Amino acid sequence: MPFASFPRARISHICAIALSVTVAATTAQADDVTDAIAEAAAAYEEGDLAYAKESLEFATQLIGQMKTGTLATLLPEPLAGWEAGEVDTETMGAALFGGGSTASRDYTKGDKTVSIQYTANSPIVAQMAGMFSAAAMGGGGKLIRLGRQKAMVDEDGGIQFVVDNSVMVTVDGNASTEEMKAYAKAIDIKALKDY
Question: Tell me: the pLDDT tens digits for 78-87?
């Protein structure tokens, strides 16, 4: 649809809705988000579609960073006798695997390590869910239950599962499979579903 014939009232309405939704976000980044959306709306009104698109993508990335921070808080505390490392987070743009967020942390006990990584808001998660099912059925891994959550244990003892087709969880390391299962069971599946 040519720019001149696109209904400006509709774009203004969409921008107003986007602004009202983001106002409820946290203060420092919420200002950046609302500023980016306002810049996009102004650029659109001026006919600068490239900058309008860039500003909306920037706002989307900022919101993704806020969600990634929330995802990081869902990593479990260290189990008894273990120490937890720093949480690493990353927000990937759409150009990299379709975008998404990751949060990970290493847990250590002596020379043993367990690493937990969450990947969310990425189209690759649904694809991986299908691959896990196919691999388990084809003998590439062993299916287990972690409460009501199905998971796959690979030949190295690593555990993978997808929560609600939206968050992929990977638990691996050089610890025993039982220790990795204990960490997998410590993950708050309900909180990940609500994420």
Answer: 999 999 999 9
Mean pLDDT of 104-119: 96
- CATH code of the domain in which 179 resides: 3.30.200
- Residue 146 is which amino acid? L
Instruction: Kindly write down the DSSP assignment for every residue of 42-66, as one continuous string.
Output: HHHHHT-HHHHHHHHHHHHHHHHHH
Residue 57 structure tokens: 């993508």
What's the rounded Cα separation, in Å, for the pair 45 and 176? 59
pLDDT tens across 172-183, in order? 999 999 999 999
Alpha helices in 138-188 (DSSP H): 177-186
Highest mean pLDDT range out of 2-16, 30-44, 160-174?
A: 160-174
Give yes or no: residues 88 and 163 share one domain. yes
Residues 87 and 34 in one domain: no
What dihedral do alpha carbons 151, 154, 158, 161 form, nearest 10°? -20
Tokens of 49: 């579609």
Residue tagged 């990335």 (tokens): 61
